Amino acid sequence: MSESKPNLLSLADIEATRRPFVEARPLPGPPYRDPRIFSAEIETLFLKMWLCVGHQSGLSSPGDYLMREVGDESVIVMRGDDGTIRAFHNVCRHRGTRLLDDAVGTVPACISCPYHSWAYGLDGKLLTAPLMDEVEGFDKTDYALCPVRCETWNGFVFISFDPDAVALVECFAGLPDFSRFGMERLELGARHEYEIAANWKLVCENYGECYHCPTNHPQLNPVSHFRSGGDSFEGDYFCGGPMRLNDGCVTMTVTGQTTRDPIEGLGPDDLRLVHYFNIYPAFLLSLHPDYVLTHTIWPGAADRSVIRCEWLFAPEAIDRSDFDPSDAVDFWHVTNEQDWAICERAQKGVQSRSYRPGRYQSLEKTIYFFDNWYLRFMETVLSGNCNGDNG
Ligand code: FES
Ligand SMILES: [Fe+2]
Prior knowledge:
- The protein is α+β, with helices and mostly antiparallel strands.
- The chain has 2 domains: 246 residues, Naphthalene 1,2-dioxygenase Alpha Subunit, Chain A, domain 1; 114 residues, 3-layer Sandwich (Rieske Iron-sulfur Protein).
- The protein is built from 9 helices and 17 strands.
- The strands form 3 sheets. A 7-stranded antiparallel β-sheet has the order 1-10-9-4-3-2-5, with no helix packed on it.
- Strand 12 and strand 13 form a beta hairpin.
- Helix 3 packs across helix 9 and helix 5 crosses helix 8.
- The protein is globular.
- Bound molecules: FE2/S2 (inorganic) cluster and fe (ii) ion (FE2).
- FE2/S2 (inorganic) cluster binds next to loops.
């Protein structure tokens, strides 16, 4: 008797998304709701690829850290006394206890384990271990926190759990050159965190189209028309494209106006555009004339995600005594909440066994890129189990 395989996705469904754009169908229901597919995504995508944890300016002083969770893994990303940003597994080397709980924080001189008080320096080295000098052959240098790969790209800090992951710079070689935005010198102006009841891919897909904007974002159309998108394009590790600001508008705020100057060095085209990119799997980078907004999406379960936003500004803008990021923050906070509400509603729909995908509208080309990237990366897991219809 042959061993029965789990039925993850039908070959017909995979092929339907892979057809040429004008004939293709969006992803079917199981990738949004099946916990087995969710686990496979964690293993195949999130524990293999580079994940952006935030901008380096959010870790401005020694001891500043971010804590991120991916599946069963938890990582501390911390600036050391020497200024270097490093990443470690959030796991004590004595008997494994989790060390830090907060997503953002600062430790004073060391990380102290809450169980038996082993203490680690900001570089991960074990500094003190109470009474362990009584243990024969115990050598502190053998028990530093286990490192996680950590690299920066344009000022953004990325981690990878995969020691064999292609170097970050190589992954992003095909991305458009945005060096004129000077992203490495931008500074954190605001942060927001959201927890939503929707699959991480729904959030990425929603970001990739403005077909939903007239219905869901009444404040957005007066600033940037929903059909103003230029050609979207893709590479191995990204998809995205620009949208145009309406005449008379200089950035994305409620009024389309701001007191901030544009980021120095931008050309005339950049002053009329907002560039929206999804860097796979789930780093959403939105380049405005006077600020940069990022979303990082952290999958919690098939139907649950945490989304973290950062608003970054030029140091000249932040240094001004009248600096006030609220026009940019409030605008996108309102837009975010509208997006999360519709994503949660979409999740409820795709949970239904009755769901069958329709067709892509022409404004949804970026989603087609995203969905096909997803299938390319998940193919082995998904199509290796194609033994029935699971639509
Ligand atoms: S488990 Fe951390 S000090 Fe014992
Ligand atoms: Fe939206």
